[in-house]
């Protein structure tokens, strides 16, 4: 009887994976409009990290294998507290002492529970997640000042009035309130700094990809 049951389960899994495929990444920080491939690649990599943290929830304070429903997205501070509780030096030392008292050799207990690298990598993954999810979207976005006047004569204008003059960005940028207008040289200097930060964080997550499993 087990074979038909297994066959039915295989059919169920096959249908579920077609209706809700696991190899599709929905990028939350990009609109459904066209985006250049470098931007799609950048956000797709970080969206994988977001999905890992929020859907697989490896740093969830109260993980229950029987309850697979996601009822809460925990804050980075809660995740760090959870890691400190289970992987911090104090928690690890308690586990080592307990197993030594139970008959384990000190060397065996140390090799089993001393997970400094896992602790460090877990904390770094949360740092990267917090940067992409919360800090990067809220950083100030700058726009080149298209009013061709001497710097000392320039004045700030209403944001929406300025955006009306940008033909292809008019509708898309409305509602953005954290923008500042700069000269061309100031704009490119800030954008270069942002690009360097993005590149650094991208390299970090690629280097830590082997820890994205539960």
Mean of pLDDT: 77
Helices, by number, come to: 9
Poorly predicted residue ranges? 146-160, 167-177
Biggest sheet: strand arrangement: 1-2
Structural class: mainly alpha
* Element string (H = helix, E = strand): HHHHHHEHHEH
- Which outline best applies? flat
Sheet with most strands: 2 strands, parallel
Binned, the helix content reads: 55-70%
Q: Compute the gyration radius: what is it?
A: 25 Å
How much of the polypeptide forms β-strand, as a percent range? under 5%
| Total E-strand runs | 2
End-to-end Cα distance: 32 Å
How would you sum up this structure, described in words?
58% of the residues lie in helices and 4% in strands. With 214 residues, the protein is mainly α. The chain has a domain at 2-138. A two-stranded parallel sheet has the order 1-2. Helix 2 packs across helix 6, helix 3 (76-87) packs antiparallel against helix 6 (116-135) and helix 4 runs antiparallel to helix 5. The two termini are 32 Å apart. Residues 146-160 and 167-177 have low confidence and may be disordered.
Layout of secondary structure:
Layout: H1 2-19, H2 37-56, H3 76-87, H4 89-101, H5 106-113, H6 116-135, E1 141-144, H7 159-163, H8 170-173, E2 179-182, H9 184-207
Parallel strand pairs: 1-2
